[in-house]
Design brief:
2 domains; 0% strand; binds zinc ion
């Protein structure tokens, strides 16, 4: 039952994520005005604004002007719903669940904005840096260490700044945006110094692999700019979950070996 609760809450947060994705880059309020059709500007009634259900009922069209509604809306809703469910199944009711949900929500919004506009708004990345620091005393991924959070942020920031400086000298153009640097720094605040390094390497692998596939299928040219934010986001989440499971596995291992010794 709780599983369904978290999935449905996630769907509604996904609906809110859609609002954030379309308004935050333009400095528009995420509260007012209420949701409206981007084409005819008629406000959307509550019964036409139910995540996924309304999209299916209206067959992806505005009730008033029949304009097509982007498939991205239900995709973001479903993604957020599934993410909330996965977080609950992984962490149970705990501080880790709270952190996972906040981090995941931010990264979903950031990834879609980056895919649309190739930017990561400062208001998101910088506020995420501060949230990471504030939550550090209850964050198991960094062993509840405030210091680990701060060093993670500094390391990620300086590391990417260096790479971007060297890259821009070699290629004579910007290889990594300031948005990516602040995003990885925010990840450092949630993962700590060694984990964020793993996340960066993972992001390079996933980004490189996807880029290669896109070039092979001629969807992109090797000179095209591919936003890096979504890969950084996926990697931060992957390592956040992995660090939790490795931590639990190690604890179990230690406990069972203590049991073995004490049984003798
Ligand atoms: Zn309309």
């Amino acid at each position: 039952m709780t599983e369904i609760f978290f999935f449905v809450i996630g769907l509604f947060f996904g609906s809110f994520a859609n609002v954030c994705i379309r308004r935050i880059p333009y400095n528009k309020s995420i509260v007012l005005p209420a949701s409206h059709c981007p084409k005819c500007l008629i406000p959307i009634r509550w019964k036409d604004n139910i995540p996924i259900v309304s999209f299916l009922m209206l067959k992806g069209k505005c009730r008033n002007c029949k304009a097509n509604i982007s498939l991205e809306y239900p995709i973001v809703e479903l993604l957020t719903g599934l993410y909330f469910l996965l977080s609950y199944l992984s962490f149970g009711i705990s501080f880790s669940l709270l952190i996972s949900i906040i981090l995941g929500f931010y990264l979903i919004v950031i990834s879609f904005i980056d895919m649309h506009l190739k930017i990561v708004p400062d208001i998101l990345s910088v506020s995420l840096i501060f949230i990471g620091i504030i939550l550090s005393p209850i964050n198991s991924a960094i062993k509840y260490s405030f210091l680990n959070s701060i060093t993670g942020i500094c390391f990620a920031g300086f590391f990417l700044l260096t790479i971007s400086y060297i890259g821009s000298k070699i290629y004579k153009k910007e290889v990594m945006g300031g948005g990516d640097i602040k995003l990885l720094a925010a990840g450092g605040g949630f993962l700590g110094i060694s984990n964020i390094f793993h996340a960066f390497i993972t992001a390079c692998f996933i980004g490189g692999f996807v880029g290669l596939v896109l070039i092979l299928f001629k969807k992109k040219k090797s000179s095209d700019f591919i936003p890096f934010g979504p890969y950084i986001s996926i990697s931060i989440i992957l390592i956040f979950f992995l660090s939790h499971f490795i931590h639990i596995t190690l604890l179990n291992l230690i406990n069972s070996s203590i049991d073995m010794f004490s049984a003798r």
